[in-house]
Amino acid sequence: MACTIPAGALVRCARSVVSSSLRAACANSLGHKAEAAEGFSRQRSSCSGPSGIRDVAISSWSREALSHRSSLKTTSRQLHTSSAARRRQDPDTSSAAPKQETTASDLDRLDVLGAVPVPSHSVDLCMADGFQLNSGAEIRGGSGVLLVGGEGFAWQPWLAGDKGKRLVNSKGQWDIPDESLALLGLVWPRPDILILGLGPEIRPLAPAVRKHIASLGMRVDVMDTHNAAAQFNMLVRERGIDEIAAALIPLGWREGRGAGP
């Protein structure tokens, strides 16, 4: 048998259930608010007003500052320790003895011909009455020397003329007969340069002598005997014994008297 419930009774029952739920929710919310208010009251009582809030903020900042300072000290100690270790590993080079440096003034390193042997017919000594060669041979007695093809020959060009012991003409030019240089026309290969040492002083060369030397296919370089010997020694090492020849008069040569000690 079915039971019929009036509609008004259902509405009243629903309102009663909703009201009970709202009251429970409000009570729960009020309980949380009360707890929060109680906690806030305790915090206010411990802070004692605005000054207390300021003290709490300062205490919090102090703790952070101390923590930051402690971390800075630790970092500083680490940096100090690493710097000391690096100094121990890398000793100070400023206290080390300075290294010796080879400068450009080292003449041994500048001598590009140092490894080239000295020819045996190069001139070691120029004397008043002759010469001494690198081989140890000496040409004395007032004779000059003719150096060609690696050999040294006693040379007396004044004997080829009729002027006696005179090598300077009336014009003040150094003049010798063509026959005095005949040996240079016999050698082969022909030297490229002939160095003439005219004794203690230099004089102009007679045109006929210069022309004859050019006809032999050689260039001529004229200077006093001392410089001529030095020039010959350098060029014969640099260019070879077949390229350079020299004809030298002793340093003690005097016109009309010849050379002597």
From TrEMBL:
This is NADH dehydrogenase [ubiquinone] 1 alpha subcomplex assembly factor 3. GO terms for biological process: mitochondrial respiratory chain complex I assembly. Residues 69-104 are annotated as: Disordered. Residues 69-84, 92-104 have a biased composition (Polar residues). GO terms for cellular component: mitochondrial inner membrane. The lineage of its organism: Eukaryota, Fungi, Dikarya, Ascomycota, Pezizomycotina. Coiled coil: none annotated. Gene3D superfamilies: MTH938-like. Signal peptide: none annotated.
